[in-house]
Design goal:
The protein contains nine helices and seven strands, in the order βαβαβαβαβααβαααβ. Strands 3-2-1-4-5-6-7 form a seven-stranded parallel β-sheet, with helices on both faces. Helices cover 47% and strands 15% of the residues. Helix 1 crosses helix 9, helix 3 packs parallel to helix 4 and helix 4 packs parallel to helix 6. The model has no long low-confidence stretch (mean pLDDT 96).
Length: 248
């Protein structure tokens, strides 16, 4: 299904080469947007651009979200290639799971840096542009892990909880500039990482979901579309759980 909810809009999506980022990009393009994908893996990002329809609708940029300079270059590409910046999706992330006893400082620092500092870099750089034009929508991807905490994820859970606080603080700062800032907390979503789980663990996790199934990346993309578009025009500082009812 295609439409024009985002016709004429330009969106930047970090971590856009695969997974949730690519699913969001697909949905945005289907609804009329042009997208700029930022990812560390430039070859994969270029492949993603071709899948989306090529240079007319998408562009690829190598981007380390921890770097303010890289984020600036990413946003500048959106402006120079497609003429503006209307939507920013801070999606890039990594996992370095381990129990507290075995987790190294490097594993902790890496996850905090990519998720928390990376989101902050995207948020502050995009908002600088959007506040001048008095409009824009920023969507930060958190996780249900940031609400309930997960064993083996003290780093990831802390970072994703931090994104919630950051979203709310930024929403208050940016509201009078006409810029909305919201977040999504996905639950158990089908991905290469989750499908690699042992069958017993997979079945245990699915059993915790009241709707009785795993979520699809497209279902996160639909919520991102809602937050990016006009139907959520009176929403800011909101955190939407997309979990099938898990951990309600």
């Amino acid at each position: 299904m295609s439409g024009n909810i985002l016709s004429g809009k330009t969106a930047v999506i970090t971590g856009g080469a695969q997974g949730l980022g690519f699913a969001i990009a697909e949905r945005f393009v289907a609804e009329g947007a042009r997208v700029v994908l930022g990812d560390l893996n430039l070859d994969a990002t270029k492949e993603a651009v071709e899948k989306l329809g090529g240079a007319d609708v998408a562009a690829a940029v190598k981007c380390d979200v921890v770097s303010g300079d890289d984020i600036e270059a990413l946003l500048a590409t959106a402006q120079s290639t497609f003429g503006g910046l209307d939507i920013m999706v801070n999606n890039a992330g990594i996992t370095r799971d381990a129990t507290m006893r075995t987790m190294t400082e490097e594993q902790f620092d890496q996850v905090i840096s990519v998720h928390l500092k990376g989101t902050w870099q995207g948020l502050r750089k995009a908002s600088t542009i959007m506040r001048e034009q008095k409009s824009g929508a920023i969507i930060n991807i958190s996780s249900i892990s940031g609400k309930v905490g997960m064993v083996g994820q003290t780093n990831y859970s802390a970072a994703k909880a931090g994104i919630v606080g950051m979203t709310k603080a930024a929403a208050k700062e940016m509201a009078h500039h006409g810029v909305r800032v919201n977040a999504i907390q996905p639950g158990l979503i089908r991905s290469a990482m989750t499908e690699a789980l042992p069958e017993r663990i997979w079945n245990e996790k699915v059993a915790q979901v009241p709707l009785g199934r795993v979520g699809e990346p497209s279902e996160i993309a639909s919520v991102a579309l809602f937050l990016a578009g006009p139907d959520s025009s009176y929403m800011t500082g909101t955190v939407l759980e997309v979990t099938g009812g898990r951990f309600i």
